[in-house]
Amino acid sequence: MTATPHFTGDASPYGGGDPYADYRTADFPFTHLVDLADRRLGAGVIAANDEFFAERENLLKPEPAEFDPERFGHKGKIMDGWETRRRRGASAAEPHPTDEDHDWALVRLGAPGVVRGLIVDTAHFRGNYPQSVSVEGASLPGSPSPEDLLAPDVKWTTLVPRTAVGGHAANGFEVDAAQRFTHLRVNQHPDGGIARLRVHGEVAPDPAWLAALGTFDLVALENGGEVEDASDRFYSPATNTIAPGRSRKMDDGWETRRRRDKGNDWIRYRLAEQSEIRAVEIDTAYLKGNAAGWAAISVSDGEGGESADLLPRTRLQPDTNHRFVLPEPVRGTHVRIDIFPDGGISRLRLFGTLTEEGVARLAARHEALGG
Q: 227 Cβ partners below 8 Å, 6+ apart?
């Protein structure tokens, strides 16, 4: 079902100045969840039936779409999104496309998971956006090709039924499908352009893969870790701390505003499942004059479980990866890092293994989601 409010119709033609001044958007209830179609997780747009005016890959760019009113190429206006040519009917007697005619793109999610909400963003597509969109999901093992995904025996589940959308707007949709998906098919009816696609949800890792790894990063997004809450997200999101790879610049980590009280900032995480933690990394890469001064980590087993120290308050250095081997494994499902007094870290890594109980619960969830 669609989120409220719902946008339809054209936006006004661009009249100069800030191109986002009349952009239509809203606060959607799912945007705090990880973007399963994040390129950093390995997502990609692997095929599209048409991309005449603008390439399909633009759909998953992490930054907002840009608009340059003077930028034209040999095919026309160059747009920062995915844009198809105008569809035509079969003949002069029937010049309009049929009701079934549409364009499509296949998206591989960076991390398989449960989709809770989507944003089909038509920023800067003011009169050339699709009349309506629909989105379907499928779950296939391995690394299927576009031909594999388009085979007639593949089961596609409707996540967003065909719904009218608006131009130059963030069109949000809540999704109610308790299944694990690996790929999406985005349809625009009959044609047009979409600037960005965001797919918010919960990672549902493959238990067999984690079992094969043995020791892995228990809090990583791609392995099913999650940020549950944070004291401050002023400069950058706390989710950055468990994103794949090393931070590449200052805003690729987590940075809080400057505190003027005697408190401290913190992030609370849920691990992939109950685990035994054996080693910790706290990275402050690219945070030089604004790195946290000290950090402490605590762990609890279960929601509201009693908290125990994992790492005592420890001095941090700017732009440095700090490594700690624990004297003995520590069991838990949730972890909290406290930084003192403020500032930021770029990454947190917690290395260890799932417990037998954690393995069993993860396997049961995987089966329940159709994995």
A: 237, 238, 239, 241, 242, 267, 268, 269
- Name beta bridge partners: 41: none
Q: How open is the CA angle 239-22-124, to the nearest 5 degrees?
A: 75
Nearest of 161, 162, 154 to residue 132 by alpha carbon: 162
- Overall average pLDDT of the 16-39 stretch: 95
pLDDT tens digits along 58-112: 999 999 999 998 899 998 898 999 999 999 999 999 999 999 999 999 999 999 9
pTM over cut 0.85: yes
Q: Is the peptide bond before 318 cis (omega within 30 degrees of 0)?
A: no
| pLDDT reading at 29 higher than 90 | yes
Predicted local confidence at residue 175, as pLDDT: 97
Residue 128 has pLDDT above 60, yes or no: yes
Per-residue pLDDT band for 4 (boundaries 50, 70, 90) equals: low
Amino acid at 301: D
Q: Is 287 helix (H, G, I), strand (E, B) or coil?
A: coil
- Work out the burial of residue 75: count CB atoms within 10 Å of its CB; fewer than 13 is exposed, 13-18 middle, 19 or more buried: exposed
Give the Cα separation of 15 and 294 in Å (integer): 50
Residue type, 55: E
Contact 322, 249 (CB under 8 A): no
Residue 80 burial by Cβ neighbours in a 10 Å radius (0-12, 13-18, 19+): buried
Q: What is the per-residue pLDDT across 167-197, written as a single tens digit (0 to 9) for each? A: 999 999 999 999 999 999 999 999 999 999 9
For residue 79, the tally of other CB atoms under 10 A from its CB is 23
Dihedral, CA of residue 152, residue 137, residue 367 and residue 40, to nearest 10: 120
